[in-house]
Hints:
The complex is a heterodimer. By secondary structure, chain A is mostly helical. In chain A, the strands form six sheets. Chain A has a three-stranded antiparallel sheet. The two termini of chain A are 53 Å apart. The relative contact order of chain A is 0.07. Chain B has 14 helices and 16 strands. In chain B, the strands form five sheets. Chain B has an eight-stranded mixed sheet, sandwiched between helices. Chain B has a two-stranded antiparallel ribbon with strand order 2-3. The longest helix of chain B is centred in the middle third of the chain and has 18 residues, at 202-219. By secondary structure, chain B is α/β, with parallel strands linked by helices. At the A-B interface, β13, α22, α26, α27 and α28 of A face β6, α7 and α8 of B.
Amino acid sequence: MRRTVPAAALLCLAFAPGGRRAHVPDFDLEVLPLLQRQGCASAYCHGSATGRGGFKLSLFGSDPAADHAMIRSDRGGRRLDLIDPEQSLLLRKPSKDLPHEGGLKLREGGAAYSLVRRWIAAGAPRDPAARARLLGLELQRRADDSLRVLAQLRDRQQPVDVTHLATFSSSDPRVVEVDRAGRLQLKGPGMAQVFARYVGQTAGLEICRPEADCPPTPLSIPARGLDRPWLQQLQRLHRTPADPAAPRVLARRLFLDLADRLPTPRELKHHLAQPAAERVAATARRLLQGEGFVRRFGRLLADWWEVPQPGDERVEARRRAAQVARQTLQRELAAGTSLAAMARARLDTDRRLMDRFEDPRDRAEWAGRSFLGIRLGCARCHDSPVDRWRQDQHLSFAAMFASPRPAPQGGMREGILFHPGTGEAVPPRLLPLGGEAGATTDSLGSFVTDPGHGLFYRNMANRVFGALMGEALVSPADDHRLSNPPRNPALLDELAAVLKEQGLRGLVLAIVQSRLYQQQVSARSEQHEILQGRPSRSMDRHTLRLVLQESLGLGAIPTLPASPLAAQLALLNNPRLRQELQQSSTLRALQWLAPDADTRLRDLYLLLLGRPPSAAETRALLPELQDDQDGSALRDLCHALINSRAFRSIR
Amino acid sequence: MNCDRRHLLTGMAGLPLLSAQTLSAIAKDRALILLWLDGGLSHLDTFDGKPKATPEVRGDLKMLPTGHQDLCFAEGLPRLRKLSAELTVFRSITHGEGQHDRASNYLLTGHRPSPVLQHPSLAASYAEPAAGSTLPAFIAIPDAPPRGGRGFLPVVRSPFELGAAPGKAGFAVRDLQADRGSQRRQRMLRQIDQLDGAPRDGREQARDSFLAQAQALSLDPEARAAFDLQREDGARRSAFGRHEIGQSLLLARRLVQGGSKAVLIRNRGWDHHRDMKRALTYGFPPLYQQLDEGISALIEDLRLHKLEDKVLFLLASEFGRTPRLNQAGGRDHWPRAQTALAFGAGMQRGAVIGRTDRNGTEPIEQAVSPADLHATCWKALGADHAHRLQSPDGRPVPRVEAGGTPIAEALA
Lengths: 651, 412
């Protein structure tokens, strides 16, 4: 135990710069966090945009100066009684001495109540420099499963205990809950993080809850590679990986993921004929050089970077622009351009994607979401309540995106963003992303893709992983922040490192070769969270259309509607699809060239599901194909198969 | 055993399968028809006329008193003028979002746009799928605007978008009907899916539920008939008007009659930055006539079918338009004042909420936020606007943003 002083007394000592006894509670560091902890400054209470009952606080205490003015001077200072502090509205309302819609928030005579009272008695002062005194935050877990929050202040050697002023949260209440006092309540098995937030800073702590019923199984963990951090985490949780998927299931998964199509029966045969240890790598290497890879990842990149779907644009010029932007991405991918270079081009030379937005703030937020994987949007209106971004940082970063305009003296003038409130020019400034960033600030592109902070690589690696695994490590994928941790932090580090060193194709190759990728589908979604087994995915409507056209030799069929029920109806009933199936060259060849119904059934299953039918399936379906002179039964079977759950899923 | 309603309900709520949500779904039998005028309806040229304003404000279009309170409707809306005492008119809706996308978000969901959360629209949120109806709970004609969809709700709450415009000749919803020879296919599909075993996870379950819905719809001629406007007699179709708005409203009535909970009609082309008069009085047929015929026929029709206490009709758009005509004779975006109309279930007939100033610039009486409008609609539909939904990141999010309060005067 470092200290034995009771918390309330400690408080008085803690914040006094010289440790003097006659301490006046600090507004920014004590009073405001206290109100925030009681929920006073939340969006549903006084933190709402219009306040409550005429009393408005900044959301989550993001603007202490305004809050101080509101409490101290608004409405002629009627909220405070400096001579008789107990008569202050600020105390009488939350202690329910007067009616208060928000209920009892400060118990009269309690430590929190007396802190606010002492602050009022001292004249309700505020030190504008107080916030800058807070250097860092540390979260510790005591033996009795309660949390302790320590703040490092600039002018104090010993860290200060601020547990009673912090707000707590858990990343997964199914694993651990944390109450207002910071006591942990351990729940079901899994990994989670608990967080303490205090004066705009957050500290996190990992909580690992192994499966109670399973004894720890020693796993053989490789010395390097993607599987290492994954297996390490499973071992800590007393879990084991799911079994690997059957070779045929894996082959179908691999082709759909890397080539945007199904394997032909020949390719499948060739793939399976290779030695088990090498076949995935060999096939993947071949597919990575193909057109399908460019097509699929071009489409993914375009979606990640928010290029509109041409079909969704109503104006012809915009439709063409979207098409061109998507083609450009595909061309660059085909040429082997690195993702970082592609992103740099979007920010520095070819600004068409960015210029879809007129407001520089929209552009900055787009760049944040697309390239850095962070949401700056909150900070447009207030300091982010969950992340580290402040409103002024948002605005000066947005100023970097203002368009240059012609200067009166000739030539071009750098873009200027004017402060929406004051009308003054905002000085452009890059975001403080941490790491060793700051070296490359010659252009927006090189800043965003700077390996020093590494956010670009983490973001893209997370999205690539999500596309191949069905769920990203950080979800939502554009919301990387301390309080939204990856499901396996070490794994994300590893993925980002591979992307940086070996590029997109290298990362994809590393992922598909891992045991992690090759696991079979498992039913329980809580297992997916710790990467035990994997979720089933379904082909998106673009892939589905291409697969039907290519595998069955169909002519042009319409893209399925976006509305899922309409898409399902089209797949069942669309007359054009039916007609194309009637003329399918593949089905005709099967009908005329296959010697018997048995072969036809087998070949169709191989073609669409990548496996022969089971004995039960043969028993059920073969009778339907007997005496099929005109091929209509084969067509019906094909139509049924493309509607089946097994066909539409990527397992 | 004590068998009063409260005991029964609490007892049932304890059962794992019947959550409070399902109970509320069982309790409500009301439906919503939302006519969304995409682009921003000019309040000054339709339902909040200012005949005494100066010509730069008034424009070339004539406004006439309706005789009900001080309401002035456009000359081009004679039927609605007559029905004005039946309508609930919200004249004083006001907010601060002047951009289409952001304002649509506010007016469709009842929440200001959030960079971190896409809220479900009123229609998506209200239309909880109920057992026993083959028709989809939430239907969009011909499609849903970008902010009119399911938001953060699960994928099974997506709208069924018809993808076809009822005003066009030969209108039919595509791919609804199974062809004649489909039995063998259906049989094979059932066998294939059965032999495939149980759905592997939640996503495959969602696909199964869409397949079941699609098959039920394909094979149920009665449910499918709801989409077929040919089944209405010619006189009725003509009464609604042979145009987009009229036929969409008629179709919407058929759909809610058939069991849909919410029908969202998206009517595009209301962003009139040029020549207001031309925009509203030209065309085949003009927009005035479409609104006038369509809405007045719907009101008559709901009465005729005794649906006036079951169906809530709401007309809304993202914002109003500038009080002064611009140089091109059009009006630009104006979120500070706009009008919405409602009729039917839960709404007070003839209530006129608020008033704007002499130029229609902003409310001078009883300002109403889009959140208030939404809270009022939830109440009219018999549900609690403050009920909290679970967002994907685990936060409880109220159906309507904090501060939204039902307007008592508008409610029956």
